[in-house]
Amino acid sequence: MAAPEPLSPVGGAGEEAPDEDEDEVEAEDPERPAGVSGARSCGGGGSGAGAGGCGAPGAALTRRAVTLRVLLKDAQLEPGAGVLSIYYLGKKFVGDLQPDGRIVWQETGQVFNSPSAWATHCKKLVNPAKKSGCGWASVKYKGQKLDKYKAAWLRRHQLHVPAAAADESPASEGEEEELLMEEEEEEVLAGVSAEDKNRRPPAKGASEPAHPETTPPGKRVENKMRVPVRYCMLGSRDSARNPHTLVEVTSFAAINKFQPFNVAISSNVLFLLDFHSHLTRSEIVGYLGGRWDINSQMLTVLRAFPCRSRLGDADTAATMEEEIYQSLLLRGLSLVGWYHSHPHSPELPSLQDIDVQMDYQLRLQGSSNGFQPCLALLCSPYYSGNPGLESKISPFWVMPPPEQRPSDYGIPMDVEMAYVQDSFLTNDIIHEMMLLVEFYKGAPDLVRFQESWSQEHTYLDKLKVSLASRMPKDQGLCHVLEQVYSILKQGS
């Protein structure tokens, strides 16, 4: 490995990748307080409410002209303390609605001019990769989404607009899909499994959903499940396909081929990877160091290097990657792969993961004519479908599509690995664990280890059981691990 440059693709991988959709645009009051982030006003860029400009006399009413102030003046909403809320990835935010239509976030007292500005700010605190907040579709007023109030206002004041058009969600299709994924994640974080939902008694009528405002007709059931697809069902690339679609891996035997390289992996690698994955409700990434023996065609994975950075945080990621590159050099290791987590989903690659892995394989290959493999590991710590308390950690490698079908996706292949139990935990591992605990301490997406994972076990119990399956032969450092667990319990 001649330079650290190949470390960069990982920053874009994962389920919670940045949105492609633009932020919602709203008509804003010109008196925006200095220093408060907000959505763009409709005074520029041609985004006014009609031909006459923003709010011009006789201009056609549009969704973008309907603000909280408009709804307050028309008595659709009433100002009040704590009447607005956002629930995102296990974190709840509460806001006060002011008589002038502004929002005061209770936790900090910050003032925002629109639902979009507030939602984007809050969601970025939990997931810095977020670009938009889907404000009107994710902020609730007294338990009901604001876009419903906007739709009702339009029906009353714009009689020539068909009801169906007025009822359309202000979110784009991409944002709508993102909201579905957010809600699925929220249910998992709240411990709601598919079985639990099936066991719930109907709250109203047998055919009436308990929360009708969260169930768009004809879309919810199919999108909520996120069922993995088989590779053979994908076909050619389609820009409309969700990049977070999970894909089943294919065995080499199924296509009458042999695995082109052997893999041996250290138990310490899986131990640290599993620990890292358990700490947060968000995705994590890291790198794999090891050696490639071209004569025996053996890839030996000896060390995990966690990235103590957030997806989307380019500056911190670059610093971490340089640090990891130097660590590889000092240990005489090569970069041989990467890992990341799907916290609440199966340990299967998404379409985006497949593309990142293929890019990685090509970049690690460089100008060399000889074959050099690159391994990807996926960890699923909190997926409710996992048997028992252990995380599922699965390797995959991507086979290029057939030459006659260059526009197809790469084929995610299941990789067989030999597990090598280490003699003991090294000081490096303990040091990395403490650095990770310090990094996530106080974060809103830190797992609360003292809370219940199931009826019988806390999240800390689950972590201990999962790590026990990857412990070295000599467990003399168990007292040190207990200190780490104690810090986790107190810090969360």
UniProtKB/TrEMBL annotation:
One Pfam family this sequence matches: JAB
Record field: compositional bias (Low complexity): 163-172
Keywords: Hydrolase, Metal-binding, Metalloprotease, Protease, Zinc
SUPFAM superfamilies to which the protein is assigned, alphabetical: JAB1/MPN domain
PROSITE patterns attached to this UniProt entry: MPN
Single annotated GO MF: metallopeptidase activity
BP GO annotations: proteolysis
Domain MPN: 263-398
Region named Disordered: 1-48, 163-221
Biased composition (Acidic residues): 16-29, 173-188
Entries under CDD domains matching the protein: MPN_2A_DUB (cd08067)
Function description: Probable protease. Acts as a sensor of N(6)-methyladenosine methylation on DNA (m6A): recognizes and binds m6A DNA, leading to its degradation. Binds only double strand DNA (dsDNA) in a sequence-independent manner.
Similarity comment: Belongs to the peptidase M67 family.
Name this protein carries in UniProt: MPN domain-containing protein
Organism, as annotated: Rhinolophus ferrumequinum (Greater horseshoe bat)
Lineage, top ranks: Eukaryota, Metazoa, Chordata, Craniata, Vertebrata
